[in-house]
């Protein structure tokens, strides 16, 4: 750590921050994090508050059978063994996965983790008659676990998952499912309100205190099963702070050590005060999903014209440089990005020609956008800029502005409920191959059943997706995923603008954080000096 | 007087019912689905239907209203969709936190504004009057969220003498306003919250005092040889009904919490709770909070009416 002692303000803040820490937590090493969430994510297993809930509560209190390797930031994060040490498809049945479980793992309450716990956790999110069933938890994870038909306990540390269809990507879905302690929930009479205030997992942090709306305090689990991930600090304090200015002020005044998503205009001020700004591309895109049935985007030429019309350098300048240009559906560092034949670099002449060829001049489009929302970056100025660039080549763009929740209401039922909308500006998490590619273009995912809002339909794409689902050789699977992404780019299945780089700001006394290329992050190596 | 009080309380019942109906309907009129927060973005139609049924959103709206009203009458405001916690507990805790801020703002704003306004009114047209009027105009014109941010920049970021956010170093559970380390957390929110009431009440008090000062009875008092301080007291007392009405409204607004101020200072009060509930369409929390705040408003108006009647018996109706 290098202190800029010539910066008196930074030094004063550091001193006061250190004093505050010392006075509030004694000799403990405390990491205080300001989240963008408006409340503490729920602690009963599957968190709410989107992937921020997964990031700060889910993967800290709990483990999944499969986890994400967040130890490096050079390449996109991939899955790794968690409470499962290995998994393989049954050689005689491609709808049956055999999973070996980690031995010697204890829940925070002291009970042993066994195969029975996995079966009990499956009932918790699937069996309405089970006493541990919780409808909210069912809803939160159903899109990942709906494919599981049954869980068989083979021995104390071995289970089999029988699925309703062949899915070679199934281990990715297991990475979102958190295991909660049967011992603790039963001890509390299956009362989830009580359990929320005394949760028990197997994660690297243990629950300490929760003040709703205000703070969640977790403490180090010194006996965590992965010795490399035993937290390097004693206590983790999570504070909801939805207002970006407040988060920046809290960091500058030494009230917190780590803030999520500082707004680009505050970053120079934070840097001048000695704060560390960390960024990394991650599986996120800021784009428009298009309506392939009702309006002008049914034409591939029009979709390509829109992509050629965008000067992404201007958008990047608007964000102070804190984005990657979005020419494709996934950031280039993703293993299945490939080398698409077409690159949508700014080319207004080509865009105008394509519109002319499609006979769409002026080309009227309506885009539904939100004023704010999860992953939406700076939606209003970004959309205004996109509109001006589209209109400059021959589009007539109408922006229909609504709040985030209303936009989700447009997105969920699919285009049939809003045929007048030609595109929706919803940022998507692209954490795994299904989320990144398949759900946007597979005809089986047409809204309202899935995320293919605009009802993209292409038999060639469907056939390729079915091959991917049936391909258990990782190398061949990767080739097919790459081919799928390249097809999606050629087909211009979205209007791509940006990939967020997810800036975070850390106090000068915080070291050891490596920002992974993921929605999830590992806080355990952080040292607070 | 007793009959009057009973009549006013009885009037409050249909008002309360009307308020409950309006607040129930309003949250449904807004676009957005309350289940969005608990359903993944690609939840299937089957999952959505099951969750709707579990939360009772599959029933017709009038049925939902009467079910909700029936429970509310017994003090059961339901559970938050987002957190699963009791709405009554959530609102009560938030209300206590807001009352702490509102109480501080009431003390600061009412005393300061009344003193300033009465002085300005008594010396209408003088330099003091112009200064007070200027302060009042600033108070009502400066957006309080802007003032909050400016105060944070000056006192937290630059001078580092006051905390920027939160309610105490360990949260509201261990908050003790009589401890300096905790008291520091309320200073900026109270100042921010006080500015608008200071402006409004000072202006009202000034005009009321100036108006009463021109009435004939004041001349009579002076002609009878009363000391000027005694005259001033008579003037103030006659101006009070008008001032009390405005104070009552401001008290109600302050008790309702300020979404902007509480969000800027991350103060866990009703404004912060409402902001979160609006963004997540947490209908039980929205309905419960709005209803309780509306009831406080109705009760405040009732108390103000009674106070006005006590101060000026001519206002007693019937």
Description:
The complex is a heterodimer of chains A (529) and B (318). In chain A, the strands form five sheets. In chain A, strands 8-9-10-1-11-20-12 form a seven-stranded mixed sheet, with helices on both faces. In chain A, strands 13, 14, 15, 16, 17, 18 and 19 form a seven-stranded mixed sheet that branches. Chain A has helices at 8-25, 50-61, 115-124, 135-145, 170-174, 182-187, 192-196, 244-252, 267-272, 300-308, 312-318, 348-358, 379-393, 404-411, 433-441, 459-469, 474-490; strands spanning 30-35, 66-68, 79-81, 84-90, 93-101, 148-155, 158-163, 205-211, 215-220, 235-240, 258-260, 276-278, 284-290, 323-325, 363-370, 395-402, 423-424, 428-429, 494-500, 504-506, 510-511, 527-528. The radius of gyration of chain A is 24 Å and the shape is globular. In chain A, strand 15, helix 13 (379-393) and strand 16 (395-402) form a beta-alpha-beta unit. In chain A, helix 10 packs antiparallel against helix 12 (348-358) and helix 16 packs antiparallel against helix 17. Mean pLDDT of chain A is 92; it is low at 1-25. Chain A is an alpha+beta fold. Chain B has 318 residues and is mainly α. Helix content of chain B is 74%, strand content 0%. Chain B has helices at 2-29, 45-55, 61-73, 87-122, 127-141, 144-158, 180-213, 216-223, 228-255, 259-264, 270-280, 283-311. The radius of gyration of chain B is 24 Å and the shape is globular.
Short description:
Chain A has 529 residues and is α+β, with helices and mostly antiparallel strands. Helices cover 32% and strands 21% of the residues of chain A. The model of chain A is unreliable at 1-25 (pLDDT under 50).
